[in-house]
Request: fold
Amino acid sequence: MAKRSFLIPGVDKRLLIEDSIKTMPDLSRRRFIAGGASLGALTLLTGCDVVDSSSAEEMLKRVSKFNDAVQDFIFNPDALAPTFAESAITKPFPFNAYYDLDDAPTVDGNDWKLEVRGLVDNKKSWTLPELYKLPQVTQITRHICVEGWSAIGSWTGTPLRDFLKLVGADTRAKYVWFQCADKDGYNSPLDMRTALHPQTQMTFKYANEILPRAYGFPMKIRVPTKLGFKNPKYVVSMEITNEYKGGYWEDQGYNSFSGS
Ligand SMILES: Nc1nc2c(c(=O)[nH]1)N[C@H]1C(S)=C(S)[C@@H](COP(=O)(O)O)O[C@H]1N2
Ligand SMILES: [Mo]
Reply:
C-alpha cells in the first residue's frame, strides 16, 4: 500500500515546516531538527490540527511561542504527555488504519493469546482473562496521527513497564517489537526507554468499555508520547530484542523515533 500524503488542502507541508523552523528559538530549532522535523511533531507541539491554511497560520503563531517545557515532552523520552479532563474527549474518536474498518481484523478473544518472545525469562503466552487480572489504570491523552489529525481519548490498561518487569524482560535490550493480526501485517518497534515510560500502556479498554474492534481488540499499545502509527492495535506478540526489525510505516520512511 502506498504511503498516504498529509491531508492539508492548500498548504504545502514542506513550506509550513520550513516556516515553523524559522520562528523557533535556537535551542528549540536544534532539538526539532534533531528529532526529525515533521508535520506530526508540529501538531504534537502546538495541538493544532492542520486542515487548512488558517489553521496552518495558527500553528505558526503557536510555534513562535514555544517554550522548552513543551519541546521537552516530544524530544525528551522521559517527559510526560499532557492528560485531559473527560470533557475534552473527542466524540466520535476516529478509526484509522491502512485499510477501511470493514477490513479490520476480527480477533476471537477466546482463542487469542499474547505471545512473549526474545530476551525474557518467562516466555509463557497470556490469555485475555489472565491479562485482565493485572492492575489497570486509565489515561486521557491526545493521539496524534502523521496524516494531520489529532483526537483526545480515554484508554485503560496495564503499564507496559509493569508487565515487562513481571515477565522478567531484559530491559537493557534496545527494543520491544510488536506484531499485529492485520491481514497484510502490521508491526512496530518501540525503543526500550519509551517501553518503560510510565504512560506507555497495554490497553484493554477504550472509554471504559472493552476495546472495540475499531480501536484494536483485544489489545493495543497506547504510547501517548509517540505518534499514532507507533500505537499498534490488534497486537498478537511482543519480542524483546536488540535487533531493529522495522515496522509498517517506519519501513516507508517515517522516523522510528517519531515523538516527531
Ligand atoms: N495493527 C495496526 N495498528 C495500527 C494501525 C494499523 O493500520 N494497524 N494504524 C496506526 C495509525 S497510523 C493510527 S493513527 C492509529 C489509529 O488508531 P485508532 O483507530 O484507535 O484511532 O493506529 C495505529 N496502529
Ligand atoms: Mo496515524
